[in-house]
Amino acid sequence: xxxxxxxGGPSTVVKWMLSHKGEAGFGSALKSLLSYAxxxxxxxxxxxxxxxxxxxxxxVLASIPAYPVGQWLEHPEDHCExxxxxxxxxxxxxxxxxxxxxxxxxxxxxxxxxxxxxxRSRLVMSGYPRGRVLRIALDEGSPxxxxxxxxxxxxxSILSREKKEGFWEISVxxxxxxx
Length: 179
Known about the structure:
- By secondary structure, the chain is α+β, with helices and mostly antiparallel strands.
- Helix content is 46%, strand content 12%.
- It has two domains: 12-92, no CATH class; 106-173, 2-Layer Sandwich (Translation Initiation Factor IF3), CATH 3.30.110.
- The chain has a four-stranded mixed beta sheet with strand order 1-2-4-3, with helices on one face.
C-alpha cells in the first residue's frame, strides 16, 4: 500500500493506515475517514457543507464506478489501498463526477450479496433525509428477507414491498421524529 504521489513517499493517509491496520476499530475508522472525504469532495466540488454521513450516503447512492464506496464499506479493511487513493484524490482536488446535489430516490442493490446489501442500505439511510421515501431494489431470497429487518432495526419504516419482474422493491422512510 504505497501511494507516493507528489511526495516521493507514502501519503499521510497511507502512513496512518499502515500504522493502525489490524487495530480494534480500524474498520470504523476507515468508514469515518471515507465519510469526511466525501463531505470534503462535496465542499470542494459544489461549495456546500454536508454532514459526513449525508455525503457518504449520496456517494454510495450514486454508484460511481471509479469509486465503489458502497462495496468498499462492506469490508473496509480489505480496501485500504482504494480508500487511501480516494482520500488522496479528494485532497488533490480531483473533481466530483457522477454525483449531483439532487438526492436520488432509488437504490438498486440487485446483484449485491448479503450482508453487503444490508450494509449499503443502512449506510444510505443513515444519511438520507428524514421523511423522504427511498425505493430499494432487492433480489429474491435472503435480501428481501434480511434488508427490511435491518432497516427497521435502525428505526426506519417499510412502507411497501412490491414484487416486480425478477426482483422486489421496498419503499423505506426514516421517520421525521428522531427516535
